[in-house]
Amino acid sequence: MTDVSLERLETLYRVSQALASTLDLEAVLNAVMDQVIAVTKAERGFLMLGDRPHELRFQVARGIDQQLIDDAEFQVSRGILTRVAETGQPVVTSDAQHEEWLSGRQSVMALKLRSIMCAPLLLKGRMTGLVYVDNRMQAGIFQSADLELLQAVANTAAVAIENARLHEQALVQARLERELEVAKQVQESLIPRSAPAVPGFELGALWRSAYEVAGDFYDFVPRPNGELGVVIGDVTDKGVPAAVFMALARTTLRASLTSNAEAGACLQQANRLLCADAASGMFVTVFYVGLQPGSCRLACVNAGHNPPLLLRRGEANVIGVSQRSLPLGIDEQAQYLSAAVDVEPGDVLLLYTDGVVDAENRRSEPFGLARLRSALCQQAYLPAQALCAAVEQAVLAHTAGKPALDDLTMVALRCVP
Which of 288, 275, 292 is nearest to 336 (CA)? Predict the structure, then answer.
């Protein structure tokens, strides 16, 4: 092995050791540029990332003294960058002032560029960026051997940069997962752990999120007039935005229901507040049921939600309540009217969200209202909490393992003697 070859191997070893010393992306980019300047003895060096000529972004610009260079994008030969980016082949010129193909380039002439080298960062044959060095004072300082060494360093750098980038992505993903887990815990704390005891009624509820966080919710709200407000809601959209709006909607409804006003007026107040805050364009469907202890009369308000099913004497039918108004958060002038629904001992009222009836099997067939009616009738004898669980099992049997695309929430009210 010649002395030149041995020196080149030693240089590449030093470069690889330096680049392997950290997985911090910014530190790796700076180390790449420092090593390139040291290896090539160039006056200036620039590192760009991107896999297309028009998408190249300057990351690091260095002088021979390792000082940062400002306004890097205006201090290089665009002609050379474009050629290397388009061809994927490295380029060296000993005197750019006399290269015919560069003679018309304004940047070359204006900056008086002479010796220039540029090599692509190649990762498994794919260009991920460019490394560029030049000297504006001397001609002929870069030879073909120097270009080979620069390309070898660039290939090593491409791997180091990719490893650092993947490490950074993994850290971001891990942080997001931790934040989502905390968000899920916070959201779960907003969902009642158990149903309250109300004379004349038996209550049960179930809440399942399709993703890490949910847009569905239910709540039990004691009201000043002695009524217990039972609320079920479904926020449009999914994921984190829906979860944030869910928390806002749930809190706003709770605050509005502390008034002595009739339930429809309370929902109108909540709607006005949500309209003022709903700049994102999201809204929430809500069904409200007011229970008076010992009474067989329910006060119902529907804000754009699925009408619940009333199971009576073995038949489950959609209850006819007041006109279905707009969801909360759309029109601040929307009106919400309360309607009375009389129930009898043994009757069951099932409130549910879209995730129940829209759940699809692998043939894209929804669970649907007919199956929900059937499941409700078949399990009518069960206590309210067990009834919700049984309906969920019917939905899961229908979907047969297909991942849920929407949250699933139910509240069951059984009228008891």
Answer: 288
- The three state secondary structure string of 327-375 is CECCCCCCCCCCEEEECCCCCEEEEECHHHHCCECCCCCECHHHHHHHH
Q: Does the structure show a pLDDT above 80 at 230? A: yes
Query: What backbone torsions phi and psi does residue 150 show, to the nearest 5 degrees?
Result: -60, -40
Domain 3-168 CATH superfamily: GAF domain (3.30.450.40)
CB atoms within 10 A of CB 328: 31
Sorted by sequence, the CB contacts under 8 Å of residue 3 that are 6+ apart come out as: none
Q: Which of 95-104, 121-130, 201-210, 306-315 has the highest mean pLDDT?
A: 201-210
**Tokens representing residue 253 in the block:** 């409804």
Say if residues 228 and 220 touch (Cβ distance below 8 Å): yes
* Residue 147 neighbours by CB distance under 10 Å: 18
- So where are the chain's domains? 3-168, 180-415
Q: Which residues touch 199 (CB under 8 Å, ≥6 apart)?
A: 293, 294
* Average pLDDT rounded to a whole number, residues 7-23: 68
Is the distance from CB of 412 to CB of 195 less than 8 angstroms?
A: no
- The CATH class for the domain spanning 180-415 reads alpha beta
Q: CA separation (Å) from 291 to 81, 222, 230, 384?
A: 73, 10, 8, 15
Apex CA 40: angle with CA 36 and CA 45, to 5°?
50
**Secondary structure class of 130 (helix, strand, coil):** strand
Evaluate whether 129 touches 48 at the Cβ level (below 8 Å).
yes
pLDDT, position 309: 92
- DSSP state letters, 186-242: HHHHHS-SSPPPBTTEEEEEEEE-SSSS-SEEEEEEE-TTSPEEEEEEEESS-HHHH
Structure tokens at 109: 């002439």
pLDDT digits over 69-78, tens only?
555 445 677 7
